[in-house]
Design goal:
This protein has 285 residues and is of the alpha+beta class. The protein is 26% helix and 28% strand. The protein has a single domain, classed as 4-Layer Sandwich (Phosphatase 2c, domain 1), CATH 3.60.40. The strands form two sheets. Strands 1-2-12-11-8-9 form a six-stranded antiparallel sheet. Strands 3, 4, 5, 6, 7 and 10 form a six-stranded antiparallel sheet that branches.
Length: 285
């Protein structure tokens, strides 16, 4: 298990300073022999990848994807174009290991980055697969990303309820991944930068063991990101730890924009203030 510690970063934006704090943790869980998850959390990009594939194929897929995205962050230009180029390079990396990878090898990738290239800074979430990004705002948690999975497609078609989906036997079958023969174009959701927001970026090893409300509970109980990721990891392991577990908690603070506000209680207008589970606003549904 990676020990969690809280990191901080200050950003000078056109409309005032932004202070970020975050922590990340990854663990192989209680039933897996190896950890096929990979994580990268350094401003301005925060990423979780959950590898799949026999032997060490999944580890290669997730590690290659995270390393290519690390290169993007270190180059300093993070946007949809540079991300998609990095994912295309990761696909080639995965395919270059034929001895350990095959058509079933791939990885999810999900996360969030801060885009300061335009007039107004904003967050952008990206997602391929069934790892997730959650946002806690005004004491309400919402899943921002939409799972690329057979079960999610059944829910969207009205053939399965969200409650039935939790225990469906096809719960692990995803429909999009970064791999040798699959699409590498993520879904994107744009979010305003709001004081008090808290993001949770995680692999499905967490969401198999904790409900959305369970995640919200541990955020409410732990204002420090390192304490929050540790509490959620401990709960996931206690509840069974059936898969690798990786978690990032990212807190947003805007001094002078409600500077006495506790994390998770921020207020402000946003295109994503009232997002449905599929990442669209109610007006767009």
């Amino acid at each position: 298990m990676t020990e969690a510690s809280t990191h901080t970063h200050s950003v000078a934006l056109r409309d005032g300073p932004l202070e970020l704090s975050w922590a990340e943790v990854t663990d192989k869980g209680r039933r897996r022999d190896a950890n096929q998850d990979a994580v990268f959390a350094t401003f301005p990009l925060f990423i979780v990848a959950d590898g799949m594939g026999g032997h060490i194929g999944g580890e290669i897929a997730s590690a290659s994807t995270v390393e290519r995205l690390r290169d993007v962050a270190e180059a300093g230009i993070v946007n949809a174009k540079t991300i998609e180029k990095a994912l295309a390079r990761a696909v080639k990396d995965i395919a270059s290991h034929p001895e350990t990878t095959d058509d079933g090898t791939g990885t999810t990738v999900t996360g969030v980055y801060l885009d300061t290239s335009g007039g107004d800074p904003h967050w952008v979430t990206l997602n391929i697969g069934d790892s997730r990004v959650y946002l806690l705002r005004d004491s309400t948690i919402a899943q921002i990303t939409t799972d690329h999975s057979v079960v999610q497609e059944l829910v969207a078609a009205g053939r399965l309820s969200p409650e039935e989906a939790e225990s469906h036997p096809y719960g692990n079958v995803i429909t999009r991944a970064v791999g040798p023969s699959d699409s590498v174009t993520p879904d994107y959701v744009r979010l305003d930068v709001v004081d008090g927001d808290r993001f949770v970026i995680c692999s499905d090893g967490l969401t198999k063991e904790l409900t959305d409300y369970g995640i919200q509970h541990f955020l409410a109980e732990n204002s420090d990101p390192a304490d929050a990721v540790k509490a959620m990891l401990d709960a996931a392991l206690e509840n069974g730890g059936r898969d690798n577990v990786t978690i990032i908690v990212l807190d947003v603070h805007r001094p002078g924009d409600g500077s006495d506000t506790e994390p998770g209680a921020g207020r402000g207008s946003s295109d994503a203030a009232n997002l449905d589970a599929d990442g669209s606003s109610p007006d767009e549904a």
